[in-house]
Amino acid sequence: MTLRQEVAQLVMPRLEGPHLDDPRMFSKVQTLVEEGIGGFILFGGTIEYTPRQLQQLQSFAALPLLIASDIERGLGQQLRGGTRFPGQRAVTAAIKRRSKKDVGLLDKMLDAIRIETRAAGIHAVFSPVVDVNNNPRNPIICTRSFGDDPEAVAWFGSHYIQRFQKESGKGRLELLACAKHFPGHGDTDQDSHSVLPVIHATRTRLNQVELPPFRRMIQDGVGMVMVAHLLVPALEPEKPTTFSKKTITALLREGMEFDGLIVSDALNMGALNGICSPEETAVRALEAGIDILLHPHDALATIGAVVSAVESGRLTRNRIRESVERVLAAKSCLGLFDSPESSDRTIDYQKHGRIAAEIGKKAIEVLSVKKNTLPLRREAGVACFVFDDDNQSNSGDMFIRAMKERFKYLTAMVVTPNSDIPESFIMDCLATAEYVVIGILSQISASKGHSGISDRLHKHISSLLKNAKTAKAKRIVISFDSPYVLKLFRDADAHIAAYDRMDEIQQATAALLARR
């Protein structure tokens, strides 16, 4: 390969699945493929069309493309028609590690994810998240993590990678898994999509909490590790981890003896803004020991900048070839250089959906409950309020629908940060309500800045709970996302953590209220 072709193998730009239907967009992507790009990180699409479009792109490539995607919650997280499984925190709640039955159910889930993902033409998943979420205010990890116990995080993470990286024969792996976000993004209340978070932990604490899950992943053969955009003074006082040779090469590659692919977090994230240009960012990441430059601002400009850095002597050709060899070795391990795979595999999506529903149902936890609160009497008056922190007035529709099916005298209302609850409506509800059910939805999403609820919704809920107490109604508070929200309303009669908002969990929560 030429120097430019070698560098191109290290670049993994964003690929918008829905845009592949647009001939102009497809042509731009085809240009990158013909340039020798190493692969893409896929966002969106459908199980009907995206696999065919990926196959077409592969036909234009001189070397096989490595297609990766954020598959933390199953293929349905990215491709319409794929199965959406519960998030990692919900899985921790659902699966009892000492139960063979539960572990078998977890295996079924992970096998389903692996089968669906590979059949879609995706070879690598940026999963599992092995950050130890030991900061309740973490705005971007939260329920994406297995929790705040390093040992549990390591156990579940190990289980994920072993099922994902199952051998398909001849020493080939069906998928490549990725442990993220090294050296640990759990102990911060900032989001690296927007700013550069600082991890203030000492080296001793890092060795006790943040790093053990990554050591376990490496011990168990994880194929990739993703490096977070963080400032960790205990490891490198002045540079972000992305630019830190001490962190990436000395600690991860040499100290922890990781010989797989090291991938950056998305290079277009706000954490690195203002430090240097996007092109300089790519060069510094490679200097530090990164193998794959993920989601750059401009793929072609990134390739050009790295080529120039080699030609000027700043980067050596051998440094580039080290990473290229790792990329090609990963592609070979996945069987991408073998004969094309058959695409006629039948997948039982309905069966996978039942597995997802079973895990979701098991994930729901009643964290506290006062006597004679649950179950709700079916013939009683029930006032149901869904508070959505993201201004999505329909996100709790399934819960409200399921509640209406179970409770004859139910009044429901959705409240967003931009809406008000008419005082007259509250008084009318409380006049006949024996129970007040409050469901809270607050997505964990990039650049949102918090994982809880806005001050305005907090005040709304507190006021509602106070009025309900005066009216002597039983008060049940449910969080369909962050469980830490429940601590804001300690005076409620019952606290329920659902950990995930998927429809099956909303339905199961309503069923729990009716029969528990």
Overall pLDDT metric: 96
* Largest sheet: spatial strand order: 12-17-16-15-13-14
Estimated helix fraction: 25-40%
CATH architecture of the largest domain: Alpha-Beta Barrel
β-strand percent reads 5-15%
Structural class estimated from helices and strands: alpha/beta
CATH superfamily of the largest domain: Glycoside hydrolase, family 3, N-terminal domain
Largest sheet: 6 strands, mixed
What low-confidence regions span 5 or more consecutive residues with pLDDT below 50? none
CATH hierarchy class name of the largest domain: Alpha Beta
Q: What Rg do the Cα atoms give? A: 24 Å
**How many distinct helices?**
16
Q: What is the number of independent domains?
A: 2
**In CATH terms, what is the fold-level topology of the largest domain?**
TIM Barrel
Q: Kindly report how far apart the N and C termini lie.
A: 65 Å
Please provide the count of β strands. Answer: 17
Spatial shape: globular
Label this structure with key terms.
single chain, 516 residues, alpha/beta, TIM Barrel, Rossmann fold, 2 domains, six-stranded mixed sheet
Provide a quick synopsis of the model.
The chain is built from 16 helices and 17 strands. The protein is of the alpha/beta class and 516 residues long.
Describe this entry's structure for a reader.
- Helices cover 40% and strands 14% of the residues.
- The protein has 516 residues and is α/β, with parallel strands linked by helices.
- The longest helix has 20 residues.
- The protein is globular.
